[in-house]
Write the C-alpha coordinates for this entry.
Amino acid sequence: MAQLRQDVDAAEAGLDDAALKRLDRHFARHVDEGRLPGYLVAVARGGRVAHLTAYGLRDVAAGLPVEPDTLWRIYSMTKPVTAVAVLLLAEEGRLSLDDPLDRHLPAFAEPRVYEGGSGAEVRTRPAAGPILIRHLLTHTAGLTFGFYHRHPVDALYREAGLEYSVPPGAALAETVELYARMPLQFDPGTQWNYSVASNVLGRVIEVVSGQPLDTFFADRILGPLGMTDTGFQITPGQAGRLAELYGETDEGGIERIPGLPVHGRPRFLSGSGGLVSSAHDFHRFMELLRRGGELDGVRLLAPETLALMTRNQLPGGATIRAFGAPVHQEPSMDGLGFGCNVSVVTDPTRTLAPSHLGTYGWTGVATTAFWVDPAHDLTVQFMTQVRPKKLKVFPELRRLVHAAVAG
Protein backbone atom coordinates (compact mmCIF):
# COMPACT_ATOMS: atom_id res chain seq x y z
CA MET A 1 0.00 0.00 0.00
CA ALA A 2 1.30 3.44 -0.96
CA GLN A 3 -0.11 6.72 0.28
CA LEU A 4 -0.36 10.05 -1.50
CA ARG A 5 1.67 12.80 0.18
CA GLN A 6 2.20 16.49 -0.40
CA ASP A 7 5.74 16.95 -1.66
CA VAL A 8 6.03 20.65 -2.55
CA ASP A 9 4.74 23.93 -1.13
CA ALA A 10 1.89 25.54 -3.02
CA ALA A 11 3.86 28.74 -3.65
CA GLU A 12 6.82 26.82 -5.04
CA ALA A 13 4.42 25.15 -7.49
CA GLY A 14 2.95 28.50 -8.58
CA LEU A 15 -0.27 28.10 -6.63
CA ASP A 16 -1.91 30.61 -4.30
CA ASP A 17 -1.99 29.10 -0.82
CA ALA A 18 -4.69 31.52 0.37
CA ALA A 19 -6.96 30.47 -2.51
CA LEU A 20 -6.38 26.81 -1.68
CA LYS A 21 -7.32 27.47 1.93
CA ARG A 22 -10.56 29.02 0.65
CA LEU A 23 -11.19 25.84 -1.31
CA ASP A 24 -10.70 23.77 1.86
CA ARG A 25 -13.02 25.98 3.89
CA HIS A 26 -15.69 25.81 1.22
CA PHE A 27 -15.82 22.01 1.13
CA ALA A 28 -15.39 21.73 4.89
CA ARG A 29 -18.66 23.67 5.17
CA HIS A 30 -20.32 21.06 2.96
CA VAL A 31 -19.17 18.43 5.46
CA ASP A 32 -19.98 20.42 8.60
CA GLU A 33 -23.48 21.20 7.30
CA GLY A 34 -24.17 17.58 6.42
CA ARG A 35 -24.07 17.67 2.61
CA LEU A 36 -20.93 15.54 2.32
CA PRO A 37 -19.61 12.87 4.74
CA GLY A 38 -16.00 13.84 4.00
CA TYR A 39 -13.70 14.47 1.06
CA LEU A 40 -10.16 14.36 -0.27
CA VAL A 41 -8.79 16.89 -2.72
CA ALA A 42 -5.34 16.87 -4.29
CA VAL A 43 -3.79 19.40 -6.66
CA ALA A 44 -0.47 18.69 -8.35
CA ARG A 45 1.75 20.75 -10.64
CA GLY A 46 4.41 19.18 -12.78
CA GLY A 47 3.60 15.87 -11.11
CA ARG A 48 4.35 17.15 -7.60
CA VAL A 49 1.47 17.27 -5.13
CA ALA A 50 1.20 20.87 -3.94
CA HIS A 51 -2.07 20.62 -2.03
CA LEU A 52 -3.60 17.63 -0.27
CA THR A 53 -6.53 17.81 2.15
CA ALA A 54 -8.52 14.98 3.72
CA TYR A 55 -11.47 16.14 5.83
CA GLY A 56 -14.53 14.58 7.43
CA LEU A 57 -15.52 10.93 7.63
CA ARG A 58 -15.32 7.93 5.33
CA ASP A 59 -17.86 6.13 7.55
CA VAL A 60 -20.22 8.42 9.45
CA ALA A 61 -21.80 5.77 11.69
CA ALA A 62 -18.42 4.38 12.73
CA GLY A 63 -16.79 7.81 13.05
CA LEU A 64 -13.89 6.78 10.80
CA PRO A 65 -12.04 9.71 9.19
CA VAL A 66 -11.09 10.25 5.57
CA GLU A 67 -7.38 9.45 5.26
CA PRO A 68 -4.97 9.82 2.35
CA ASP A 69 -5.16 6.03 1.89
CA THR A 70 -8.98 5.81 1.89
CA LEU A 71 -10.43 3.68 -0.90
CA TRP A 72 -13.21 5.06 -3.09
CA ARG A 73 -15.65 3.61 -5.59
CA ILE A 74 -14.71 5.77 -8.57
CA TYR A 75 -17.57 4.63 -10.82
CA SER A 76 -17.32 6.38 -14.22
CA MET A 77 -13.71 7.41 -13.65
CA THR A 78 -13.20 3.75 -14.65
CA LYS A 79 -13.99 4.72 -18.25
CA PRO A 80 -10.64 6.42 -19.04
CA VAL A 81 -8.87 3.28 -17.78
CA THR A 82 -10.99 1.25 -20.20
CA ALA A 83 -10.03 3.66 -22.99
CA VAL A 84 -6.32 3.14 -22.22
CA ALA A 85 -6.87 -0.63 -22.40
CA VAL A 86 -8.55 -0.38 -25.82
CA LEU A 87 -5.82 1.91 -27.13
CA LEU A 88 -3.15 -0.52 -25.90
CA LEU A 89 -4.74 -3.25 -28.01
CA ALA A 90 -4.99 -0.88 -30.97
CA GLU A 91 -1.29 -0.03 -30.76
CA GLU A 92 -0.52 -3.75 -30.79
CA GLY A 93 -2.58 -4.18 -33.96
CA ARG A 94 -5.06 -6.50 -32.26
CA LEU A 95 -7.95 -4.21 -33.12
CA SER A 96 -8.53 -0.94 -34.95
CA LEU A 97 -10.66 1.98 -33.85
CA ASP A 98 -12.35 1.67 -37.26
CA ASP A 99 -13.18 -2.02 -36.79
CA PRO A 100 -16.91 -2.77 -37.02
CA LEU A 101 -17.98 -3.93 -33.58
CA ASP A 102 -19.44 -7.15 -34.96
CA ARG A 103 -15.94 -8.25 -36.03
CA HIS A 104 -15.31 -8.90 -32.34
CA LEU A 105 -18.87 -9.27 -31.02
CA PRO A 106 -21.03 -10.89 -33.72
CA ALA A 107 -24.25 -10.16 -31.78
CA PHE A 108 -23.93 -6.54 -32.95
CA ALA A 109 -24.19 -7.42 -36.66
CA GLU A 110 -26.96 -5.63 -38.53
CA PRO A 111 -27.91 -3.10 -35.83
CA ARG A 112 -31.33 -1.50 -36.00
CA VAL A 113 -32.32 2.07 -35.14
CA TYR A 114 -35.45 3.34 -33.39
CA GLU A 115 -37.91 4.89 -35.85
CA GLY A 116 -41.07 5.42 -33.80
CA GLY A 117 -43.63 4.03 -31.37
CA SER A 118 -43.13 2.69 -27.86
CA GLY A 119 -43.20 -0.55 -25.93
CA ALA A 120 -44.39 -3.48 -28.05
CA GLU A 121 -45.22 -1.03 -30.86
CA VAL A 122 -41.65 0.22 -31.36
CA ARG A 123 -40.69 0.46 -35.01
CA THR A 124 -37.07 0.11 -36.15
CA ARG A 125 -35.07 0.29 -39.38
CA PRO A 126 -31.62 -0.95 -40.37
CA ALA A 127 -28.82 1.34 -39.19
CA ALA A 128 -27.14 3.44 -41.87
CA GLY A 129 -23.80 1.85 -40.98
CA PRO A 130 -22.08 -0.41 -38.44
CA ILE A 131 -21.08 0.50 -34.91
CA LEU A 132 -17.31 1.11 -34.90
CA ILE A 133 -14.96 0.77 -31.92
CA ARG A 134 -14.37 4.54 -32.06
CA HIS A 135 -18.11 5.12 -31.67
CA LEU A 136 -17.99 3.25 -28.36
CA LEU A 137 -14.98 5.26 -27.17
CA THR A 138 -16.73 8.53 -27.99
CA HIS A 139 -20.29 7.58 -26.90
CA THR A 140 -21.63 8.09 -30.42
CA ALA A 141 -22.71 4.45 -30.98
CA GLY A 142 -26.44 4.99 -30.39
CA LEU A 143 -26.52 3.06 -27.10
CA THR A 144 -28.12 4.53 -23.98
CA PHE A 145 -28.84 4.08 -20.25
CA GLY A 146 -32.18 2.83 -18.96
CA PHE A 147 -32.31 5.36 -16.13
CA TYR A 148 -32.64 8.43 -18.40
CA HIS A 149 -36.44 8.16 -18.76
CA ARG A 150 -36.24 10.45 -21.81
CA HIS A 151 -36.62 8.19 -24.85
CA PRO A 152 -38.65 5.08 -25.78
CA VAL A 153 -35.40 3.10 -26.14
CA ASP A 154 -34.54 3.96 -22.53
CA ALA A 155 -37.83 2.27 -21.59
CA LEU A 156 -36.89 -0.83 -23.58
CA TYR A 157 -33.66 -1.06 -21.57
CA ARG A 158 -35.68 -0.92 -18.34
CA GLU A 159 -38.11 -3.58 -19.58
CA ALA A 160 -35.11 -5.82 -20.30
CA GLY A 161 -33.82 -5.40 -16.72
CA LEU A 162 -31.17 -2.85 -17.71
CA GLU A 163 -32.26 0.20 -15.70
CA TYR A 164 -28.96 0.02 -13.82
CA SER A 165 -26.99 -1.34 -16.81
CA VAL A 166 -26.90 -4.99 -15.67
CA PRO A 167 -29.62 -7.51 -14.76
CA PRO A 168 -29.18 -8.85 -11.20
CA GLY A 169 -26.62 -11.63 -11.11
CA ALA A 170 -25.62 -11.33 -14.77
CA ALA A 171 -22.03 -11.45 -16.04
CA LEU A 172 -20.45 -9.08 -18.56
CA ALA A 173 -20.76 -11.37 -21.60
CA GLU A 174 -24.47 -12.10 -21.19
CA THR A 175 -25.24 -8.46 -20.38
CA VAL A 176 -23.53 -7.23 -23.54
CA GLU A 177 -25.48 -9.79 -25.57
CA LEU A 178 -28.63 -8.21 -24.13
CA TYR A 179 -27.44 -4.73 -25.16
CA ALA A 180 -27.03 -6.05 -28.70
CA ARG A 181 -30.74 -6.92 -28.85
CA MET A 182 -31.76 -3.33 -28.04
CA PRO A 183 -32.43 -0.88 -30.90
CA LEU A 184 -30.08 2.08 -31.21
CA GLN A 185 -31.41 5.57 -30.50
CA PHE A 186 -29.74 6.95 -33.64
CA ASP A 187 -27.41 5.96 -36.45
CA PRO A 188 -23.85 5.34 -35.22
CA GLY A 189 -21.67 8.45 -35.37
CA THR A 190 -24.53 10.94 -35.70
CA GLN A 191 -25.10 12.05 -32.07
CA TRP A 192 -23.48 11.90 -28.62
CA ASN A 193 -25.28 9.98 -25.88
CA TYR A 194 -23.59 8.87 -22.65
CA SER A 195 -24.30 5.17 -22.41
CA VAL A 196 -23.33 1.59 -21.60
CA ALA A 197 -20.69 1.76 -24.36
CA SER A 198 -17.75 1.22 -22.00
CA ASN A 199 -19.25 -2.04 -20.77
CA VAL A 200 -19.32 -3.17 -24.41
CA LEU A 201 -15.67 -2.10 -24.71
CA GLY A 202 -14.89 -4.16 -21.63
CA ARG A 203 -16.24 -7.22 -23.40
CA VAL A 204 -14.30 -6.35 -26.56
CA ILE A 205 -11.13 -6.23 -24.45
CA GLU A 206 -11.90 -9.70 -23.07
CA VAL A 207 -12.55 -11.22 -26.50
CA VAL A 208 -9.53 -9.63 -28.20
CA SER A 209 -7.07 -10.28 -25.35
CA GLY A 210 -8.40 -13.68 -24.29
CA GLN A 211 -8.34 -12.51 -20.66
CA PRO A 212 -11.05 -11.50 -18.17
CA LEU A 213 -11.27 -7.73 -17.89
CA ASP A 214 -9.92 -7.61 -14.34
CA THR A 215 -6.90 -9.73 -15.31
CA PHE A 216 -6.13 -7.58 -18.36
CA PHE A 217 -6.37 -4.37 -16.31
CA ALA A 218 -4.10 -5.82 -13.60
CA ASP A 219 -1.51 -7.23 -16.00
CA ARG A 220 -1.33 -4.40 -18.52
CA ILE A 221 -2.23 -1.18 -16.66
CA LEU A 222 -2.61 -1.34 -12.88
CA GLY A 223 0.41 -3.56 -12.18
CA PRO A 224 2.86 -1.71 -14.47
CA LEU A 225 1.76 1.65 -12.99
CA GLY A 226 2.07 0.47 -9.38
CA MET A 227 -1.66 1.01 -8.76
CA THR A 228 -1.81 -1.68 -6.08
CA ASP A 229 -4.97 -0.31 -4.43
CA THR A 230 -7.05 -0.30 -7.61
CA GLY A 231 -9.28 -3.09 -8.88
CA PHE A 232 -12.76 -4.50 -9.18
CA GLN A 233 -12.61 -5.96 -5.68
CA ILE A 234 -10.93 -5.28 -2.35
CA THR A 235 -9.11 -7.71 -0.11
CA PRO A 236 -10.00 -8.30 3.56
CA GLY A 237 -6.92 -6.24 4.43
CA GLN A 238 -8.22 -3.28 2.43
CA ALA A 239 -11.82 -3.45 3.65
CA GLY A 240 -11.33 -1.15 6.63
CA ARG A 241 -10.16 1.67 4.32
CA LEU A 242 -13.20 1.62 2.02
CA ALA A 243 -15.44 4.69 2.22
CA GLU A 244 -19.15 4.07 2.68
CA LEU A 245 -21.52 5.28 -0.02
CA TYR A 246 -24.22 7.85 0.72
CA GLY A 247 -27.12 9.32 -1.20
CA GLU A 248 -28.38 12.88 -1.05
CA THR A 249 -31.81 13.14 0.57
CA ASP A 250 -34.63 15.38 -0.65
CA GLU A 251 -33.84 17.69 2.28
CA GLY A 252 -30.21 18.11 1.20
CA GLY A 253 -28.65 15.81 3.80
CA ILE A 254 -27.12 12.36 3.25
CA GLU A 255 -28.07 8.80 4.11
CA ARG A 256 -26.16 5.57 3.68
CA ILE A 257 -27.09 3.57 0.57
CA PRO A 258 -25.79 0.29 -0.90
CA GLY A 259 -22.66 0.66 -2.97
CA LEU A 260 -21.26 -1.29 -5.86
CA PRO A 261 -20.39 -4.72 -4.39
CA VAL A 262 -16.62 -4.99 -4.18
CA HIS A 263 -16.10 -7.45 -1.30
CA GLY A 264 -15.07 -10.40 -3.44
CA ARG A 265 -14.79 -10.65 -7.21
CA PRO A 266 -17.97 -9.30 -8.83
CA ARG A 267 -19.70 -11.42 -11.44
CA PHE A 268 -20.17 -8.30 -13.58
CA LEU A 269 -16.87 -6.61 -14.44
CA SER A 270 -17.92 -3.12 -15.47
CA GLY A 271 -15.66 -1.20 -17.82
CA SER A 272 -18.06 1.69 -17.30
CA GLY A 273 -17.85 2.01 -13.54
CA GLY A 274 -16.51 -0.96 -11.62
CA LEU A 275 -13.20 0.17 -10.13
CA VAL A 276 -12.19 1.05 -6.58
CA SER A 277 -9.11 3.23 -6.23
CA SER A 278 -7.10 5.44 -3.89
CA ALA A 279 -5.80 8.99 -4.22
CA HIS A 280 -2.25 7.65 -4.63
CA ASP A 281 -3.25 5.31 -7.41
CA PHE A 282 -5.40 7.76 -9.31
CA HIS A 283 -2.62 10.34 -9.09
CA ARG A 284 -0.41 7.83 -10.88
CA PHE A 285 -3.03 7.28 -13.56
CA MET A 286 -3.33 11.04 -14.10
CA GLU A 287 0.46 11.20 -14.32
CA LEU A 288 0.39 8.60 -17.10
CA LEU A 289 -1.97 10.88 -19.00
CA ARG A 290 -0.11 14.12 -18.20
CA ARG A 291 3.22 12.63 -19.28
CA GLY A 292 1.92 11.42 -22.64
CA GLY A 293 1.55 7.71 -21.92
CA GLU A 294 4.70 7.06 -19.84
CA LEU A 295 5.36 6.93 -16.10
CA ASP A 296 8.59 6.11 -14.25
CA GLY A 297 10.13 4.46 -17.31
CA VAL A 298 7.02 2.42 -18.12
CA ARG A 299 5.45 3.41 -21.43
CA LEU A 300 1.91 2.15 -21.98
CA LEU A 301 0.92 4.34 -24.93
CA ALA A 302 2.76 6.35 -27.56
CA PRO A 303 2.47 10.14 -27.16
CA GLU A 304 0.46 10.32 -30.39
CA THR A 305 -2.05 7.78 -29.06
CA LEU A 306 -2.42 9.62 -25.78
CA ALA A 307 -2.94 12.86 -27.71
CA LEU A 308 -5.70 11.16 -29.72
CA MET A 309 -7.40 10.02 -26.52
CA THR A 310 -7.43 13.51 -25.03
CA ARG A 311 -8.40 15.49 -28.14
CA ASN A 312 -11.98 16.27 -29.16
CA GLN A 313 -13.20 13.49 -31.47
CA LEU A 314 -16.72 14.80 -32.20
CA PRO A 315 -17.34 15.53 -35.90
CA GLY A 316 -16.38 19.00 -37.04
CA GLY A 317 -15.11 19.91 -33.57
CA ALA A 318 -18.69 19.91 -32.22
CA THR A 319 -19.44 20.31 -28.51
CA ILE A 320 -21.33 17.73 -26.50
CA ARG A 321 -24.20 20.17 -26.12
CA ALA A 322 -24.47 20.78 -29.88
CA PHE A 323 -23.97 17.14 -30.91
CA GLY A 324 -25.68 15.50 -27.98
CA ALA A 325 -29.01 13.75 -27.68
CA PRO A 326 -31.68 15.93 -26.01
CA VAL A 327 -30.86 14.67 -22.51
CA HIS A 328 -27.38 16.23 -22.85
CA GLN A 329 -28.32 19.62 -24.32
CA GLU A 330 -27.76 21.49 -21.08
CA PRO A 331 -25.48 24.39 -20.08
CA SER A 332 -23.03 22.14 -18.21
CA MET A 333 -22.06 20.55 -21.54
CA ASP A 334 -21.33 23.83 -23.33
CA GLY A 335 -17.74 24.45 -24.38
CA LEU A 336 -16.88 20.75 -23.99
CA GLY A 337 -15.95 18.26 -26.67
CA PHE A 338 -15.26 14.58 -26.12
CA GLY A 339 -12.21 12.42 -26.71
CA CYS A 340 -11.88 8.74 -25.80
CA ASN A 341 -13.85 8.49 -22.57
CA VAL A 342 -12.82 11.98 -21.40
CA SER A 343 -14.41 15.38 -21.90
CA VAL A 344 -12.19 18.05 -23.46
CA VAL A 345 -12.50 21.83 -23.07
CA THR A 346 -12.79 23.29 -26.56
CA ASP A 347 -14.06 26.79 -25.70
CA PRO A 348 -13.24 28.08 -22.20
CA THR A 349 -15.42 31.15 -22.77
CA ARG A 350 -18.54 28.96 -22.84
CA THR A 351 -17.94 26.46 -20.03
CA LEU A 352 -20.11 26.66 -16.93
CA ALA A 353 -17.05 27.13 -14.68
CA PRO A 354 -13.62 28.62 -15.45
CA SER A 355 -11.52 26.24 -17.52
CA HIS A 356 -8.48 26.23 -19.78
CA LEU A 357 -8.35 25.17 -23.42
CA GLY A 358 -7.44 21.49 -23.79
CA THR A 359 -8.23 20.51 -20.20
CA TYR A 360 -9.61 16.97 -20.09
CA GLY A 361 -11.03 14.64 -17.46
CA TRP A 362 -14.19 12.98 -16.22
CA THR A 363 -16.36 12.39 -13.15
CA GLY A 364 -18.03 9.57 -11.25
CA VAL A 365 -21.62 9.24 -10.06
CA ALA A 366 -20.54 9.28 -6.39
CA THR A 367 -19.23 12.86 -6.84
CA THR A 368 -15.66 11.95 -7.70
CA ALA A 369 -13.82 13.98 -10.35
CA PHE A 370 -10.45 14.46 -12.00
CA TRP A 371 -8.94 16.64 -14.67
CA VAL A 372 -5.62 17.31 -16.35
CA ASP A 373 -4.82 20.85 -17.48
CA PRO A 374 -1.92 20.64 -19.97
CA ALA A 375 -1.64 24.42 -20.36
CA HIS A 376 -0.76 24.80 -16.67
CA ASP A 377 0.80 21.35 -16.11
CA LEU A 378 -1.87 20.76 -13.48
CA THR A 379 -3.75 17.68 -12.25
CA VAL A 380 -6.67 17.71 -9.83
CA GLN A 381 -8.67 14.97 -8.16
CA PHE A 382 -11.63 15.15 -5.79
CA MET A 383 -12.91 12.12 -3.90
CA THR A 384 -16.05 11.69 -1.83
CA GLN A 385 -18.93 9.16 -1.85
CA VAL A 386 -22.33 10.82 -2.38
CA ARG A 387 -24.80 10.09 -5.16
CA PRO A 388 -26.32 13.56 -5.64
CA LYS A 389 -29.80 14.81 -6.43
CA LYS A 390 -29.25 18.57 -6.39
CA LEU A 391 -25.70 18.89 -5.02
CA LYS A 392 -23.37 20.42 -7.63
CA VAL A 393 -19.75 20.18 -6.50
CA PHE A 394 -17.82 20.29 -9.76
CA PRO A 395 -18.43 23.91 -10.88
CA GLU A 396 -17.47 25.08 -7.38
CA LEU A 397 -14.32 22.95 -7.45
CA ARG A 398 -13.27 24.25 -10.85
CA ARG A 399 -13.79 27.89 -9.84
CA LEU A 400 -11.82 27.49 -6.62
CA VAL A 401 -8.91 25.63 -8.24
CA HIS A 402 -8.86 28.10 -11.15
CA ALA A 403 -8.49 30.97 -8.66
CA ALA A 404 -5.48 29.24 -7.09
CA VAL A 405 -3.38 29.07 -10.28
CA ALA A 406 -1.07 32.01 -9.68
CA GLY A 407 1.22 31.55 -12.63
In short: The first strand starts at residue 38 and ends at 45. The CA atoms of residues 232 and 275 lie 5 Å apart.
